[in-house]
Amino acid sequence: MAENILFCGNNKAFDGILISALSIIKYYKKPLNVYIFTADLRDIKPLYSPICWQQALFLEEILTTVCPESRVRLYDLTQDYRSGLGMGANRNTVYTPYALLRLYADKLPVKRLLYLDADTIVCGDITPLFEKELEDYECAGVRDYVGRWFIDYNYMNAGVLLFNMDMCRNTELFERARQMCCRRRMWFPDQTSLNRLCRSRYFLPRIYNEQRAYRKDTVIQHFCKSLRLLPYIHTINVKPWEIDRLHQVYHLSVHDEVLTQYEHVRECLKSRLP
Q: Is residue 261 a contact partner of residue 21, using CB atoms and an 8 Å limit?
């Protein structure tokens, strides 16, 4: 049986999705159903162009070199967003509208779903993550490194979330989260709504969403914006596709094999796109 993974983003985020997918299949060789939520929102901002079917097909070709049964499915949620969250209180925040698309995950006819942000890199076998027993929980995730200090100790980071979709549908988690985001303006709308409304959560060890420095036991590294206190209070925001900055700022070379492969396949993709 194939495991299910969800990414969300626009055309600009596809580089991150490509890197994350390449890192997954470096360690995981079984069938995968990779779902991608996108939307055409160029009237809001010219950069908000959608991921296209050629990109999705190219990603599927890559996945099938490891496992022929793997598939990539692209969902255009333009109309869903425009008639729903795009009219709500969080339509204009510091985050792109694509961060909210994960709240439409209940559209997928799956029982278990692993959501990954486009700025994640898998560093080890994620089979144990798929084997987590979630019968009594709506979702599993890792505590947010900053949020646990400044918001709530059990505030969960939404960059890596494993959902028990049957229970989520029973509790209407995603529908209620969408309604909350439409009504109430929040700093981290998608993440905060899931944290406030999720009734049963399983907390994973930090190795499944390492939000700070890479460690030898890290399974998924998440390159989210991080707060640093020394030598002065500042933030760092370096993404996996910014390879030179990744080396210069983090002095990180452990992902070079995947990033070199990414650079090669990215050039192949460019030759296919109109």
A: no
- Candidates 17, 252, 218, 259; CA nearest to 125 is 218
Extents of the domains making up the chain: 3-224
Helix (H) or strand (E) holding 54: helix 53-64
Q: H or E stretch including 5? A: strand 3-8
Q: 106 to each of 53, 101, 144, 236, 250, how far by Cα in Å?
A: 22, 11, 23, 33, 36
Q: What is the pLDDT of residue 227?
A: 66
Residue 116 CA, distance from chain mean position: 3
> Residues 19, 25, 31, CA angle at the centre, nearest 5°?
130
Q: Supply the pTM of this predicted model.
A: 0.96
38 and 8 in contact (C-beta within 8 Å)?
yes
What is the three-class DSSP state of 58? helix
The CATH number, out of the four listed (3.40.630.120, 3.40.50.1100, 3.90.550.10, 3.10.560.10), of the domain defined by the range 3-224: 3.90.550.10
Return the residue matching tokens 């210069």: 248
pLDDT digits (tens, 9 = 90+) for 134-167: 999 999 999 999 888 888 999 999 999 999 999 9
For the chain, how big is the Rg over CA atoms in Å?
Answer: 18
CB 181 within 8 A of CB 156: no
Q: Is 123 exposed, middle or buried (0-12, 13-18, 19+ CB in 10 A)?
A: buried
Start-to-end Cα distance in the chain: 35
- Region for 171 from its dihedrals, namely left if φ exceeds 0, alpha if ψ lies in -120 to 50, beta otherwise: alpha
120 sits in which H/E element:
strand 120-122
Spatial contact of 196 and 179, defined as CB atoms under 8 Å apart: no
